[in-house]
Specification:
Length: about 375
């Protein structure tokens, strides 16, 4: 293999994001996004991928470049079948398609992107990197739900977890920030974006995560409810007369911060709180309450916590969220420095005080680099 570049593709239902990364020097010669697939001139994913190829060719970085070593694809759900980056074959594509019932909104688009990319460069190694893979090390006691085992096994009902590429990257980057190897560090990673998840990482291996069978479980999110009593669904169906699809839409698209106060942008919620808006304040308080519950629970799971890392859009940019989530946790060995927390930076940094027993960090995530690294490592081995 002569090339050192990896093209990372993230094929969503209505968009394709791409980045070209050079693993020799860490540079990113190109990146972009094709949106509104199915509307206007971009009729389908084939047209979107052709547009990506054309944009790269216009910059002298075409798919036929000898410097291109591989294509790395983000795939949301790998089930229990895929627990590490996997070289894509016809059989692998078929297996990913079998997992569509577990991720009906994501895996179909992921598969389409894979098929189109393979048709454009059938000779080039292409690798699937799964969002669920990093969480495959969770012990059975944490992965199992307390329901009938035969039913759970028949339908694949268990905790899979998501945002795995982010949690993997951030947990390792946090260890590096502390000047230690991942195996030496126990970390709670808080990936807080419009979708939000927490993970407990012991010595580089995930042992617990907040998202479950689907990305709906866990923290309060932009439009998703997170944890809720399952019987609420029966109540809404029997008493409220709501259909399964209506409840699905409610919990995934009309809940979370948006359901609580009408906004899912933490910046706007902060502005409204400053004006005394009670709905915005309550939404923020519920968001923080759930977050703190998970920090406490994962402290118990890990036994010893060396670091807490905030990442993703809200985690990296909202000093108010970080301050509120870590407030009055000195009994846990957690102390945040207000000045450090208020500073904005695009690089990984500590925001804890010098005498805080637990390091608190802000670590920008880089899922594209994680996918590229895993892809390149596999094809160059």
């Amino acid at each position: 293999m002569n090339g050192s570049r990896v093209l990372v593709l993230n094929s969503g239902s209505s968009s394709v994001k791409y980045q070209l990364l050079d693993m020799a020097d860490g540079s990113r010669p190109a990146s972009g996004i094709v949106e509104r697939i199915g509307e206007g001139p971009v009729a389908d994913h084939a047209a979107a991928l052709k547009q990506v190829a054309d944009e790269l060719a216009a910059e002298g970085l075409g798919l036929d470049s000898p410097e291109l070593a591989a294509v790395g694809h983000r795939v949301v759900h790998g089930g229990t079948r895929f627990t590490e980056p996997t070289l894509i074959t016809d059989e692998v594509v078929q297996e990913i398609e079998k997992l569509i019932p577990l991720a009906p909104l994501h895996n179909p688009a992921n598969v389409t992107g894979i098929k189109v990319a393979r048709s454009l460069r059938p000779d080039l190694p292409q690798v699937a990197v799964f969002d669920t893979a990093f969480h495959s090390t969770i012990p059975e006691a944490a992965a199992r739900y307390a329901i009938d085992v035969a039913t759970a096994d028949r339908w694949g009902v268990r905790r899979y977890g998501f945002h795995g590429t982010s949690h993997a990257y951030v947990s390792r980057a946090t260890a590096a920030l502390l000047g230690k190897e991942p195996a030496e560090v126990n970390t709670i990673v808080l990936h807080l974006g419009n979708g939000a998840s927490a993970s407990a990482v012991r010595g580089g291996r995930c042992v617990e995560t907040s998202m479950g069978l689907t990305p709906l479980e866990g923290l309060v999110m932009g439009t998703r409810s997170g944890d809720i009593d399952p019987a609420a669904i029966f109540h809404l169906s029997r008493v409220g007369g709501m259909s399964t699809d209506e409840i699905d839409t409610l919990l995934n698209k009309r809940s979370g911060l948006a359901g609580l106060c009408g906004d899912n942008d933490m910046r706007e919620i902060g502005r409204r709180m400053g004006e005394g808006d009670r709905a915005a304040q309550l939404a923020f308080d519920i968001y923080i309450h759930r977050l703190r519950k998970y920090v406490g629970a994962y402290t118990a799971v890990l036994g010893r916590v060396d670091a807490i890392a905030f990442t993703a859009g809200v985690g990296e940019n909202s000093a108010a969220v970080r301050e509120a989530a870590m407030r009055d946790l000195t009994a846990f060995g957690i102390q945040v420095d207000g000045v450090r927390n208020a500073l904005r930076s695009a690089t990984a940094r500590l925001i804890s005080t010098e005498d805080s027993r637990v390091a608190v960090a802000v670590v920008p995530t880089d899922e594209e680099m994680e996918i590229a690294s895993q892809t390149y490592h596999l094809v160059s081995a």
